[in-house]
Amino acid sequence: MKLSRQFYSRDAREVSIDLLGKILVHDINGIKLKGRIVETEAYIADLDKASHAYGGRRTARTEALYGKPGISYVFSIYGLYYCFNVITKEEESAEGVLVRALEPVDGLDEIARLRFKTSYDKLTKLQVKNLTSGPSKLCMALNITKENNMEDLCGDKLYIEHDKNEDPNNKFEIVHTKRIGIDYAEEAKDFLWRYYIKDNPYVSKK
DNA sequence: TACGGGATCCACT
DNA sequence: GTGGATCCCGTAT
Q1: Nearest DNA or RNA nucleotide to A73 (CA to C1')
Q2: A74 partner at 20 to 30 Å CA-CA among A26, A86, A139, A198?
């Protein structure tokens, strides 16, 4: 079952936590690439010097952050990579969740090809671990690019769904810790706004 | 119009 | 653990 607009219409920190264990799906001409979300980070412009929209900064790039909950914000970084966020809370609020790592679930051969140009069964152990264990790795793996910026995740192409195999009696443990790669953000760099599933091998950094 | 740097990854040491 | 890749965007001139 697909996550509803309502799911996204909450504080980015709550959404970050509840996204753990959910399945990100990119439908590429009928081939479904799927990964279980195992690591997220919250960004809340009003409180957060690490946010691209801090201080009400509003440009062509950050426009998605101000959009309605449940749309994507994909930005490019270091000239060659992309990062994927989901927008939360409400229009004009500039809150979002960076999806930092996935555990590959479906479309494994296609994912392996997109990352390493080979089939899944030919991957080394290290390559398997590196398939989706980082924010830009997962974009390469699921073929998420700037073309997917401001995509409505309540649509049929790029969306997030509940994991039907999740066992409600055996809930995973969630670690709350500091975010990555934002040392410039002064006090905000110490906010415990990164969340991950304890002991999952695809988490980008312990 | 120019310049500097980034919510990263990878190869190499 | 370190540095290079590589380009788009934000900010200043």
Answers
A1: B7
A2: A198
